[in-house]
Amino acid sequence: MPPPYIDYMQGHSLPHGGAYRKPSPRKLLDKYREYEEALSISQAPKTVTDLEEKFNKEIEKRDYIITGMEERIKKVEGLLETLGDVKETVAILQKENINSERAI
Q1: What pLDDT does 15 receive?
Q2: Which DSSP category does 40 fall into?
Q3: Helix, strand, or coil here: 27?
Q4: What stretches of the chain adopt beta strand conformation (E)?
Q5: d(CA 66, CA 83)
Q6: Read out DSSP for 66-82?
Q7: Burial profile 27-57: b = 16 or more Cβ within 10 angstroms, e = fewer
Q8: Are 3 and 17 in contact (CB under 8 A)?
Q9: Up-side HSE of residue 55: CA atoms within 13 Å toward CB?
Q10: Alpha carbon distance 1, 38 (integer Å)
Q11: pTM of this prediction?
């Protein structure tokens, strides 16, 4: 909201007696309607409650995502362990194959 409008609504005297910046009642009403939610005290608790609900939903959403990612990480770690075991088995088989070829 423009500062002169705020000053006028608070009863402050405007520069030059308000001759140049005094808002018309219609403009003042339009600006008040535009900023009513921010200016209204009765809306504050509702706004806080709405924000709390919004943040709680966002936290739940992120917790769900994190849980899913933790499960995927455990799965990938298990696959990496299996891959390591396969790698060791392949290395052993290659050594056995090399040794058996030398024996022939």
Answers
A1: 62
A2: -
A3: helix
A4: none
A5: 25
A6: HHHHHHHHHHHHHHHHH
A7: eeeebeeeeeeeeeeeeeeeeeeeeeeeeee
A8: no
A9: 6
A10: 10
A11: 0.47
